[in-house]
Amino acid sequence: MRAANDNHPVCNDIRFRVDPRLVPLEKAARRLHLTRASFLEILPALVAHGFPEACLVTGHFDLKAIDYWLDQHAGLVADDRSQTQAEASRLVKARLASLT
Fold first, then answer.
1. What is 31-88 written as a DSSP string?
2. Residue 78: exposure state from Cβ atoms within 10 A (0-12, 13-18, ≥19)
3. Pseudo-torsion of CA 32, 74, 84, 61, nearest 10°?
4. How far is C-alpha 45 from the chain's CA centre?
5. Residue 47: predicted pLDDT
6. Would you state the pLDDT for residue 49?
7. 3-state DSSP call for residue 23?
8. Can you tell me the distance from the alpha carbon of 16 to that of 99, in angstroms, rounded to the nearest whole number?
9. What pLDDT is recorded for position 99?
């Protein structure tokens, strides 16, 4: 039996660590090293550049989506849309060339 003032978790109290994926605006701002006010000020510009919007249900931001967006802008991953567009363009050119 535990004492009433024993606030230390027992081994069975914590089974595993859970890192939240959806975070409130303040934490999303911190991910970009911005204050809440600065983040709100530039959020429309960020969204215009493809920054992931908040969840319509919770109002929270997806950290994985933010990290993916950052990776794309740093050139660490290819932009899927540009690859798809490039592939479509190549296919159209090949088909047009085969008609002549």
1. HTT--HHHHHHHHHHHHHTTPPPPPTTT--EEHHHHHHHHHHHTTSS--HHHHHHHHH
2. exposed
3. -10
4. 16
5. 96
6. 94
7. strand
8. 61
9. 79
Nearest to 25 by CA among 52, 50, 49, 60: 60
Angle value at C-alpha 75, between 23 and 42, nearest 5 degrees: 45
Q: Is the pTM of this model over 0.85?
A: no
Residue carrying structure tokens 């530039």: 42
pLDDT per position as a tens digit, 36-90: 999 999 999 999 999 999 999 999 999 999 999 999 999 898 766 666 666 777 7
Residue among 27, 29, 35, 21 at smallest CA distance from 65: 21
Task: State both tokens at 27.
Answer: 């934490």
Rg of the chain on CA atoms, in Å: 23
How far apart CA 90 and CA 72 sit, in angstroms, is 23
